[in-house]
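Why Lytic transglycosylase catalytic? Reviewers of the renewal asked for a concrete example.
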Amino acid sequence: MALMQLSRQRIAALLTCWLCMYLVACVAPMAQSSATVTPEPLPATPTAVPITATDLLQRAQAALEIGDDDTAAELLSQLLQVFPAAPETTPARLLLARSFADRGRWTSAAEVLRPLLAVPGTPAYAPALFLTARAHEAAGMHEAAVATYAQYEALNTPLAPYAAMRAAAQLQALNRLADAETTYLRAAAGEMAAGQRAAAYERAMMLAVAQERLPDAIDYARNILSFATQADYRARLLVQAADLAATAGDPATANALRREALAAFAGAETVSAVDALRAAGDLQFDPFAAAAAYRAVERWNDVIVMLDIALAREQNPGEALRQRGLARRALGDFAGALADLAAAREREPDSDTARQAALDWIQTYGQSGATAEAAALYRQYADDQPDDPRAPIALDRAAQLYDRLGDSAAATATRLELGQRYPTTTVGLTALHRIALARFDAGDLAGAGELWRLLAERGEGIGQALGAFWAGRVAKQMGDEAATSFFQQAIQAAPESYYAVRAAEESGTITAGSIPIAAPISNDDWALLSDWVLSWASGETDPGLVGVAERARLLREVGLYTEAHGEWLDGLRRAGDSPLNLLALAQAAYQAGATYPALLAAERINRLAPATAAPIPTALLRLRFPTPYADVVQREATAFGVDPFLLYALIRQESLFQPNATSWVGARGLTQVMPDTGRGIAQNLGVSDFNLDDLYRPHVSIRFGAFYLGRRISDMNGSLHGALAAYNGGLGNAQRWANGTVVGDPDRFVESIDFAETRNYVWAVYAFYGVYRGLYGE
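Here is what the prediction returned.
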């Protein structure tokens, strides 16, 4: 009836609308109810389905950025099915293939790529070819991989050297060693990160050795040395080349390379070189360098032999005696150690070596059992040499010895002297703060405030901020109006510090930022940052940094994320301490979504800026305190009762926004969740198909980190300080430091943490939290 009156055009539109809804929602369409006598009138124009190919592509890209490959694959597959003729299908195929590849589904990846390979000359052809070659690799089809990589190389893209590198590995698998060697050399000759070039030459070295062409292998090592700059790596390479020369029957070249290795780096890497030189009777090397190499592996008798050579040559005899004394002490020969150190002390009494030897003598004397005498001698040293930078160290050691002796009064008196005489040194600051805290705990607010005011007056930077903050706290507790000025002083002395944040909180001057978390850095902000850098820096920008950014982009496009990361790090190496290069790299990395290298470059710019420079521009602060994954962070933080800014601060401290970060103890991902903790969180959240590698996926890591931090906040009755301590040091320890689950005084709680790592962690995260709150708005 009413439907019968609709035009065919409107019927077709409705059917199309229903079909799209069916495909998108993947649910069966509801049957229309029977017409009634008085049907509801239809709108003049049917409501359009809010879905386009562009929308699907953008949503898929967003899913890939957070590591949600399953969702991305569903969206991309939907795009290809619903909009098969749309221009978005080309990037969709590339992204879907890469998503399959990331999950090891190489057959599916190759199938998706096939239509792109049928159209050479298009922008998608090159990445499709590279990914197809990788698919052949994964399938063990070495010949096909070599052929496909050769096709890719012929395109002469910036990734040609990387294609050659992978083709060489396939040739090696086919036992075509000569061809593999040639291909590695071709890769090494191209433009790529220095680490990759070195790796290519090293593999060519290995193949030359396998083919018994040792001179060629040595030449390849020299090629690496022409651009490698890391001292220990250069030494290791030189030792390898020396061993090759020795095997080739060229002892003169071998020994020359060993001497060069020792000169490049005196450490564990060069011990074998020293041993070989000594065995050959070749002592034409620096005995101090040889001693340092042996010291690195605690071969103390060999250290002594090398220092004896230095003494015989009259080569810096005072330092040789001092180092020999320390070696003898390590062997337990206190008498011999004291004799050598005394001789070094007396040789040139006013020299730097003699003063260090004097301190070493006192330390050795104390270790021999004369603890009280050593403490007195340390104090005497500080009195005799008040301007020596070692004087505060001497007083600090004296205080520690008094602690060991159980003489708390002498220890306190010594620390008080140390802090009052040297408040700008780390040990002086620490000593004065320790006594002030003891007075504070004992209720002596006036006495504690006196010491903190001293730090506020005479300290510098973070030391001054510490003193001013605590002086402000005491003044506030005592009803002294001076508290406000002390808090302001703390904020000005170290604006990004823990003490600045807490001072603002205590004085009620916390300012909320206004920049939306997801807002990009604007062109105007980039211009302001550039002008700021140019106001104090000059020079030319390295044009090669453009190639770095392009190679990193293309490597990411074909799923070589580690290599892309390596290009950015190589860009940082190339940029060095040039503010203009660092700015160019930071901007390129930021625009490519590479948060970590952008942050590192920005931190380096911040460090290089002179004290006389104008205030730091907003863009630099945003690069140093970035907000990637904004939607996920806000969603998960809100879900688990965590301030998004606190979660960002935690991620910055934990991983510097590196999704693939892995700590030395095995913590993984952005929020550095330990494997066992991750399994427990997965169980709590009902994640049944959890895999440990999922912790490297940003959306998983952020969710798990937010859940865990939220739980710790609850466990510590809402205390952020307690929660952060629990996150890093364990809940049981946090409750031990708090004497329960309630943190009454957050600052005193942090001071009570007896794990230095956790104490510094809480200070750092809370400081970052303050910066994020002051920079961004909800």
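The mean pLDDT is 94. This is the kind of structural detail the renewal will allow us to pursue systematically.
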